[in-house]
Design brief:
heterodimer, A: 136 residues, mainly alpha, 1 helix, rod-shaped, B: 146 residues, transmembrane (chain A), membrane (chain A), DUF2746 domain-containing protein (chain A), coiled coil (chain A)
């Protein structure tokens, strides 16, 4: 040794104090980093939740619009269907009236032929009244 | 899985193929020095004597041994925080030893060459612990070597 060992003081705590100070510093550093990491995690979760909520609201509005469109289509189809039903009934009525007129005309012709001595059973069969389009 | 764990431990801007062998090699040297001091090696330099006069050379040996073994265990476990803790513990140990060695060199002519090992160990582990940070980065970005 370049120096006399007896000249070295017996109680030297520079190193231990430095060691303990460094440990305290690293504990403080780890605690700070932990707080920051947690804050970053919380911010990330919050932004994820916000974006998910926005996505859910967007999809919800899209679904509502689709439901409204479908409801309008159903209403239009109902209106078309009722119109077609009304038209069908009107057509049936018109057909029935025309059939009755034809039957009356045939009856008149039959009477005219019978008046002239012609047997109508061989040329004109008796018309059967229509059911008006209704089966049975 | 193992590849992901290795990614977590990768020191930024320092190639892991270089950093890991150097770190483990330095840890082996630390373990050698620590077990030597722990199991009765007599002080051979002024700084050793000053370390022995403080809390005892065997205490510093125990500190270095625990730090080196902890570093080996943490690297084997492949977890970020334990690796950082081991590096930080060795930084603190080498900081204390460097302070004593510096004191020995300045006040008692202990020789500046004895500062190389503790200051080198302090610098190496300080750089790694500074670059690693205690926890993996949350934004998955490549860490900067700042």
């Amino acid at each position: 040794m370049p120096t006399d060992p007896s000249a070295v003081p017996s109680e030297i705590f520079t190193g231990p104090y430095g060691f303990l100070g460094a440990i305290v510093f690293f504990l403080w550093l780890a605690a700070r980093e932990l707080r920051r990491a947690r804050q970053i995690d919380v911010d990330t979760y919050k932004s994820d939740i916000a974006s998910l909520r926005e996505l859910i609201e967007q999809r919800d509005s899209e679904h509502k619009r689709e439901v409204a469109d479908l409801t309008n289509s159903v209403e239009d189809l109902k209106a078309d269907l009722s119109g077609l039903r009304r038209e069908n009934l009107e057509n049936l009525d018109a057909g029935a009236r025309r059939e009755e007129a034809l039957i009356r005309e045939i009856g008149a012709l039959r009477g005219l032929l019978a008046a002239n001595g012609i047997d109508t059973s061989s040329v004109l069969p008796h018309p059967k009244p229509s059911t008006g389009g209704v089966p049975g | 899985m193992r590849r992901l764990a290795a990614e977590k431990l990768r020191a930024p801007a320092l190639p892991p193929a270089v950093v890991l062998p150097l770190t483990l090699g330095f840890a082996a040297l630390t373990l050698t020095r620590g077990t030597g001091w722990l199991f009765g090696q007599r002080p051979g330099t002024v700084s050793d004597l000053m370390l022995d006069n403080g809390v005892g050379l065997h205490v510093w040996g125990a500190v270095l041994t625990v730090g080196a073994l902890g570093l080996f265990a943490a690297y084997a476990w492949r977890r970020h925080f334990p690796v950082w803790c081991s590096h930080a513990f060795l930084v603190a140990a080498y900081f204390g030893i460097s302070l004593t060695t510096l004191d020995a060199a300045v006040r008692f002519g202990g020789g500046w060459e004895h500062l190389a090992a503790p200051v080198g160990g302090f610098a190496w582990h300080a750089v790694l612990s500074r670059v690693m940070r205690p926890f993996p980065r949350r934004d998955r970005s490549r860490p900067r070597a700042d």
